[in-house]
Write a structure and sequence with these properties.
alpha+beta; 5 strands; globular
């Protein structure tokens, strides 16, 4: 809990930064294995990915943030129900200073996903984009488990695959 100024009640910090209340639905099991990462890089990468998903999602449909294990990795899937993007643009969105098509003016300079991918790679992971079944875009942040954790079979949450 963060102390709040002026004697107001303590409020737990939002795990997803500056996104509107109710715009994100977490599905993160407590049983995930440990990962060995830089906390600051991970927090900024996740914040950039989530903020981007919220920006391009319909306001009445929350972005799902789901985590699972797959072999020797932990995957964080940020699932939106926006318009999605064509296959040929999926790599392009990670280039610096790129914003996809109809981005509102003043909606950033196009560095968020480039920075997130750079941070993921600096931590030994990957960041990729794939179609969300039924429409939208899913960003997949995959990071290696900390040493000493055996590989586990995939356990994708139902909300991340439907």
């Amino acid at each position: 809990m963060l102390p709040s100024p002026f004697g107001a009640p303590d409020v737990p910090p939002s795990p997803f930064g500056g996104v509107p209340e109710g715009s994100v639905e977490p599905d993160i099991p407590e049983s995930l294995p440990m990962i060995e990462v830089d906390r600051g890089l991970l927090e900024r990468a996740v914040a950039n990915i989530v903020e981007n998903a919220v920006k391009y999602s319909p306001p009445d449909i929350p972005v799902i943030v789901a985590a699972s294990t797959l072999g020797d990795r932990v995957e964080l899937r940020v699932v939106d129900r926006g318009r999605g993007i064509p296959d040929e643009a999926k790599e392009h969105v990670f280039a610096p200073f790129q914003r996809y098509g109809d981005a509102p003016r003043g909606a950033g300079v196009g560095l968020g996903l480039a920075v997130a991918r750079g941070f993921a790679e600096a931590m030994g992971g990957t960041l990729t984009a794939e179609d969300t079944p039924g429409g939208g875009l899913t960003m997949v942040l995959a990071l290696p488990k900390a040493p000493g954790h055996p590989p586990t079979p995939p356990q994708l949450p139902a909300t991340a695959t439907t």
